[in-house]
């Protein structure tokens, strides 16, 4: 049977004191979507509120995978994302959280999301996230009371990258927050592809890492 992937996206469209426009960063959803589709997986979307999600970085639409996502089934399905609370996530082989600044708004504390991630991880399904998407892992506590990222090899958008991107807009620095919860943080040079798997947890640093995260997730699913 075909594997089933649930992509969980933010509903935020502004961030920070200056109301910077944001959303899910296009290549961070489009590139993994392309890889999952190539593997003939069933791909569904959920968002935290069930409202229509937003996309950022539409200026990158000339990239083939991005354009295919926008003009094909991907964006059409993402616009109809189910409300996470209505989805039986136990039926999915993997969940994936793309970045963009939007997850920094509604994903750090969302209790429903934290429960979904904990339950998915603890049943040994694959959990993946890229760039600012690993904020979804923040504050997730496992059944034994430990943080999911504690002593795990993790990558996310780095403090160095944030310094030159959105430091004035984000509520906190993601690298610092993950490290404070015990993550073994792996930073590559800014904007260089960097993805890492630790057990059934797969994370990536930035937009260039989105394809690598998807490929590592597929590798785990096919193992």
Total domain units: 1
CATH architecture: 3-Layer(aba) Sandwich
Through-space gap between termini = 15 Å
CATH domain class: Alpha Beta
Tell me the structural class: alpha/beta
Main sheet characteristics: 7 strands, mixed
- The name of the CATH topology is Rossmann fold
CATH superfamily (homologous) name: Class I glutamine amidotransferase (GATase) domain
SSE pattern = EEEEHEEHHEEHHEEHHEEEH
How helical, in percent, are the residues? 25-40%
Task: Provide mean pLDDT, rounded.
Answer: 98
Query: What is the number of strand segments?
Result: 13
Q: Main sheet: which strands, in order across?
A: 7-5-1-8-9-13-12
Strand content: 15-25%
Cα radius of gyration in angstroms: 16 Å
Number of helices: 8
């Amino acid at each position: 049977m075909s594997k089933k992937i649930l992509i969980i996206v933010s509903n935020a469209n502004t961030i920070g004191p200056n109301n910077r426009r944001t959303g899910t960063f296009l290549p961070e959803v489009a590139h993994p979507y392309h890889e999952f589709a190539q593997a003939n997986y069933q791909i569904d979307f959920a968002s935290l509120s069930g409202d229509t999600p937003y996309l950022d970085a539409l200026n990158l639409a000339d990239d083939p995978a991005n354009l295919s996502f926008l003009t094909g089934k991907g964006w059409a399905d993402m616009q109809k994302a189910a409300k996470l609370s209505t989805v039986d996530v136990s039926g999915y082989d993997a969940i994936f959280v793309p970045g963009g600044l939007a997850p920094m708004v509604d994903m750090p504390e969302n209790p429903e999301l934290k429960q979904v991630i904990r339950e998915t991880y603890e049943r040994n399904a694959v959990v993946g996230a890229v760039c600012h998407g690993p904020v979804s892992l923040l504050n997730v506590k496992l059944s034994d009371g430990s943080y999911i990222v504690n002593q795990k090899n993790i990558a996310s958008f780095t403090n160095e990258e944030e310094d030159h991107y959105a430091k004035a807009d984000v509520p906190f620095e993601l690298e610092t927050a993950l490290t404070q919860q015990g993550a073994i943080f792996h930073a590559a040079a800014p904007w260089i592809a960097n993805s890492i798997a630790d057990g059934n947890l797969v994370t990536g640093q930035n937009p260039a890492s989105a394809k690598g995260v998807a490929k590592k997730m597929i590798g785990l699913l096919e193992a």
